[in-house]
Amino acid sequence: MKLILVIDRDDDLGRKTGISSPVIGRDNCLKAGESLGLADPEDSDLNTIFGAVRIYDDLKGSERVEIAIVAGDENVGVVSDNKIAEQIDYLRNLLRPESVILVTDGSEDEFVIPVISSRMKIDGVHRIVVKQSKTIESTYYLIKRMFEDPKIAKSTLVPLGSILLIFSIFSLAGFMEIGYGTIVLFVGIYLILKAYGMDDAIEEYFSTIKNSLLEGRFSFITYVISLILIIVGFIQGINSFWKLLYQPVAVGAIILATAFIYGSLWWIISAGVSIIIGKILDGFIEGRSIRRYISMVFLLISAGLIIWGGSVYIISSTDVYAHLREDAMYYFLMAVFGGFLAGIIGVVPLRQPKSA
Q1: Does an H or E element contain 90, and which?
Q2: What would the pLDDT profile of 318-340 be if each residue is shown by its tens digit?
Q3: Using CB atoms within 10 A of its CB, is residue 248 exposed (0-12), middle (13-18) or buried (19+)?
Q4: DSSP class of residue 87?
Q5: Does residue 36 contact residue 43 with C-beta atoms inside 8 Å?
Q6: Edge-to-edge strand order for the sheet containing 65-71?
Q7: What is the pLDDT of residue 354?
Q8: Residue 218 burial (CB < 10 Å; 0-12/13-18/19+)?
Q9: Kind of pairing between the strands at 99-104 and 65-71
Q10: Contact call for residues 83 and 13 (beta carbons, < 8 A)
Q11: Residues 169-185, mean pLDDT to the nearest whole number
């Protein structure tokens, strides 16, 4: 038997209609498509479902086929792909298909192909492309609708707006060259964060601040404090970076990066500790276990000590920080020892058996 499989990685079907996946069978898939069409007629997954039904109808007369829809999660990535993997395993055990034809509406859904190919033989991938009028009006409408999508808006409008804001500030201050350099730095940081998925963590950080305020949690205060500490840390890091940048003797990129770490490290560590203290207080007030948060404080301090010791030893080779040179090895060894000790203290609460 061949399985016609519709992929909805970000779970538009579930979020907009309340229908849980997997959806199995032609009639059920048609009903799901109709529900999605009534909820959002402009959703591309609607065309994907009907396209899959057409493929099912074309193949039904010549071979045994079945059709199903699997959906992931709004949190696209590991969470959504795990949900899709669980549904694929369920379909494989239930239907025993010999092969599968994937039907998607774009490259994002096709990221799960390795997940499916490791479980089933894939005979083909059919991408449904919605035909659009090639007029200027239609293009304008399409772009407008794209930017109304929160996922696209956050990925494009936020960095673009930040670049324009940075440029305007330095332009008005008369520091055009610094403005260009700052924009390049910002773009580089943004691309690195995007590559490692850290932009989601930043978004979650600000979302948590908002939720803490709305829910009246004490952690709102510690989150605000952490935000201030992070800003101060970046300023201090840039200040240390700047000191070495204009040295008469050329300094390597690694030492410049280390100088930034040396100046900003403890401010950022303090920000992390502030966040964890807020979670500890929330957990204490709500009667939840706080042992892992206590462990996180010690482990964070442990990492901070080791990184700080290494940064002191590296920048002590420069003239600006020559006063650290004599005791650099002592600082490094003591920091490693202190980090090791703090790490042991941090791990102990996690290894203790939970009280009844």
Answers
A1: helix 78-95
A2: 777 777 788 889 888 999 999 99
A3: exposed
A4: H
A5: yes
A6: 23-24, 65-71, 2-8, 99-104, 122-127
A7: 54
A8: middle
A9: unpaired
A10: no
A11: 79
